[in-house]
Amino acid sequence: MKKVTLYALSTCPWCMKTKQFFKDNKVVFDFTDYDLAEEEEQQRIMSEMEKHGSNGSFPFIIIGNEVIVGYNPEKIAKALGLKK
Hints:
By secondary structure, the chain is of the alpha+beta class. It has helices spanning 13-24, 39-51, 73-80, and strands spanning 4-8, 30-33, 60-63, 66-69. The radius of gyration is 12 Å and the shape is globular.
């Protein structure tokens, strides 16, 4: 399975839906709630997001080498190779 990383906001409903999507589909993923992270970690996350052309929108998902910004279950399932 591809490595899955999620950057989210703890209060964002779309971020919560993304986490639930991963749990429902038994996808192992690493996540960081940006708003709860230390300032140094926030700077690192924002730098990584900008490197991928994002302006700081959440959820920000990296699946293997593919980046998905926003909650898009179809795109996420396709990137993971899930049958939907």
